[in-house]
Amino acid sequence: MSASTVRVAVTQAEPAWLDLAAGVTKTCDLIAEAAKNEAKLIAFPECWDPGYPCWIWRHLCKGCHAQSQTYAIESTSFVLHCTALITDAGVEKMKTSGAMGMYSPGGGSSAVFGPDGRRLTEPVNSTTETIIYCDLDLDQIIATKLFADVTGHYSRPDLMSLNVCTRVKKMVCENEKADETEVICDLKNSK
């Protein structure tokens, strides 16, 4: 492994639903396993411990991946996309067999995306508990920025800029139409 490469671990596992002590134990076990496999960083899903009580992304796997790819491209960084999953035992424990989001096993869609948005890891079955490993070549960030740096050479301040208006504006106005003089004044002040 080169000096510019770092091994990361992305979990795809079922939380110890609503059991903080068991969740801490499981977390420590996963960290130890990732460390044995030389991972320098391990990522867990949002609200991992003690488990998110209603996994809203259960069926938006494709949409979640699209968002993660977008985040990667926009920030020119690696994205560690972590999701929890639920098993039959989890459905029974959470008593969600009739619920919209957690009625059957699945939900896992963990992956790693590169700074250019490409998926760097192989898909894993949505019901499989695992740790996904990926060796990130940090030089890919530089290579991607050479192609398209959204905050550097690729940005176009001549076409778009961020302006801050310090004047307090009301959410609700009494008049139906904005005062044109006020709009023109705002435009002049923003220059």
Automatic annotation (TrEMBL):
Top-level EC class: hydrolase
Reaction(s) this enzyme catalyzes, per UniProt: a nitrile + 2 H2O = a carboxylate + NH4(+)
Domain (CN hydrolase): residue spans on this chain: 6-191
Superkingdom in the source lineage: Eukaryota
PROSITE patterns: CN_HYDROLASE
A Pfam entry, by short name: CN_hydrolase
InterPro entries linked: C-N_Hydrolase (IPR003010), C-N_Hydrolase_sf (IPR036526), Nitrilases_CHs (IPR044149)
Entry EC number(s): 3.5.5.1
Keywords assigned by UniProt, alphabetized: Hydrolase
GO molecular function terms noted in the UniProt entry: nitrilase activity
Family indicated by similarity: Belongs to the carbon-nitrogen hydrolase superfamily. Nitrilase family.
Protein name (record): nitrilase
Organism: Penicillium malachiteum
